[in-house]
Amino acid sequence: MNPKRHFVxxxxxxxHGVPLEHNLWVGKAIRDYKPDVVVDLGDNTxxxxxxTHEAAGSLSKExxxxxxxxxxxxRAEELLRRGMGKFKPKRMIRLRGNHEWRAQRYIDANPVxxxxxxxxxxxxxxWEVVPYFMGSPQPIVVDGVCYxxxxxNPNTGKPINGxxxxxxxxxxxxxxxxxxxxxxxxxxxYATGIVRHGIVAGSCYLHDELYKGVANLHWRGVVVLxxxxxxxxCEMPLTLxxxxxxxxxxxxxxxxxxxxxxxxxxxxxxxxxxx
Length: 275
Known about the structure:
alpha/beta
């Protein structure tokens, strides 16, 4: 079997009022790297209007609307497709994440809205969609790599966490997941000579999450997997700063400061020392 190239898109968490232009850069990178397979790890839509973490009357809910959530997600998809141009990978796989599950959970609590509200309003044209089923992300294996938004502990249902080596011991195979901001990479060679790889990459967005504070200075980007064959690969992470410099001609911090007012107060990525 000839080795393949996979292009992995971590959580994009598109929502109203945040920068979305990086989706265009990601699309252009897909066009330029010409992968056989594109995998969207889930949470490409944020759905803050349906979040149960904040009370309905809280200040954080001010101005949030489901319509705006859906429009932002579809705008991100439009930019991604525009960047890809005429290039079409052999497969495009979209995993559902826990943020998309917010929509299904809302419908379950308000069944009268069935058919009016739901994930069918998102533009998934051309994607093989892997569902989030019964409150848990579903995995898919492609060329020996097991992809999932996250991997649940079989006893508790909660996400397996910790180091990559700890995850490899519990998951038991080469894996790539999203869900957790930043980038973790690792591998383990077993006594049989078999090597298993693990990647956790859960952030491909420009905005800050309020709950993270200064911890928003985490890695953001995409990951290209080269020479994918039977669960082995050579990974090549590409930061959003790299993509911005490649497609906009300036560093990400400079781009954000030029484009958005008070950018250094709004986005940690816009600070001069961030990149």
